[in-house]
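Cross-check.
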Amino acid sequence: MAKPRRWLEWEAEQARDWIAVPQATDDKYSRGVLGVRTGSTAYPGAAVLGVEAASRTGVGMLRYLGPKRVAALVLQRRPEVVTADGRVQAWLLGSGMDAGARSAETTTRLQKALRQGLPTVLDAGALDLVAAGTGARVITPHYRELAGLLARSGETVQAEEIARDPGEWAIRAAGLLGVTVLLKGGTTYLASPSGIRLTVSGAPPWLATAGSGDVLGGILGALLATHAARIDADADALAALAATAAFLHASAASRASGGGPIVALDIAEAVPATIAALLA
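Predicted model, tokenized:
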């Protein structure tokens, strides 16, 4: 895709082109398989929310590979999810994990997924492993998480500084880390190492609620799985897909809210109708 010199607002017209609509010849495998390593015993709901959102975004199959207790909760909500290891087209890693409390076994499994070189979403407790990957990677931090990640890379910055100029810090992080950055906030900023700069705005303030970021991760993971071949052909597709995920997330929140309070599960449940309206 063309690289804008200035920030480009990503809207329905652009997002529509990045929805994979199944054809009569498709099956669950050709529609994309997303591997998910998220959640923990401390934060099991993150896995449930991410899987719920990904399921409703149009992916063909989900493989959830996490703690047994968390897997049981995921299956209670989404019994069609597969909990056996196998081939996937993309990964969603880290939501609902704490890097400081992560076990050595969990770290090894996350690193193994990253070394496969597949399109990958890194969130929350997997952000610190960004350098372990070799494929197309997009990170989804908020201001505090980005400040911590940059500190590990030798860039001293406070979350407040990032909040004052999020676009500039998204650009700097993309260049420093060599990955696409989706910086969450009232306006979402997306920057790629190759110079793509996109924004998504218009989300209702009610979207600032616990678990909302887990839903965004699920939406994005599904889009990566359904467009894995396109990403392989054009690395810049990653930024367009991340912007589309942010757009769907904001639009689903607006649909679910109707001007009133929402919880994260409301956003995930509103995704199919949001996609249908976008395609129409």
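The chain has a mean pLDDT of 96. Residues 162 and 225 are 30 Å apart (CA to CA). Passed to J.P. for a second look.
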